[in-house]
Amino acid sequence: MKKRISIAFFIEIIFSLFSCKPQKNKLPKGFVYVEKYIPDLIVDLRYFSSNNFTGRPVEGYESSVLILSYKATLALKNVQEQLKNKGLGLKVFDAYRPQRAVNSFEVWSKKSEDVIAKKEFYPNVNKRDVFALNYLALKSGHTRGSTIDLTLVNLKTGQELDRGSPFDFFGSISYYDTLQINALQKNNRKILKEVMLDNHFKEYPEEWWHFTLIDEPFPETYFDFPIK
Ligand SMILES: C[C@@H](N)C(=O)N[C@H](C)C(=O)O
Ligand SMILES: [Zn+2]
After folding, report:
1. Ligand 1 pocket check: which of 135, 138, 163, 216 to mutate, most ligand atoms within 8 Å of Cβ?
2. 164 located within any domain
3. What is the pLDDT of residues 177-207, one digit of tens each?
4. Ligand 1 atom 7, closest CA
5. Model ipTM?
6. Which terms does the record give in the GO molecular function aspect (predicted)?
């Protein structure tokens, strides 16, 4: 009996060593898979899909998993807990972003003939100006691992709250302080901003969805490991 158990154990070890199951990546020290710490987080990693301003999956996004610094993850966990009392939760569109993705955005901005997602994401902006207008950054906080793009959802329905403009809409209506939105939309942006600021994130005036941890652990490092 004992011998049979040890043979089975041996086979299991060999099988797991050569298993074809996709393995999660070993992350650099200080980074974590966010959903391990916040399992009820809704994730819609837009750059892993074609539903983004480029109209295509983005380089470096090899899997639909959310990665952040451990420090930013703990702060985000508090945000999610505080929102629960209001019947709200978070939906996240982007977190850590590899430098190769940022580089690919730069290449994309120079290809004037490629406008497949213009109508939806940047109808009134010339794509070659998106960096100068601060809708994109060559040195992005996302690449430092403590910046996140997110919105609020109603916990009962799972529906996103109305913020007056969609995620990654490049236009002045996405400025936090725009006068182009109604009182409800303004209030929804305010709820998100207040809970993020309460948890040591700072806002980004040009994009209501973008927040960076104030005391970020890697303020000078632009990482380039792929998301998988
Ligand atoms: C593209 C948008 N989601 C974003 O994150 N923009 C800022 C400015 C960035 O690229 O860091
Ligand atoms: Zn962002």
Report:
1. 135
2. yes
3. 999 999 999 999 999 999 999 999 999 999 9
4. 136
5. 0.99
6. D-Ala-D-Ala dipeptidase activity; metallopeptidase activity; zinc ion binding
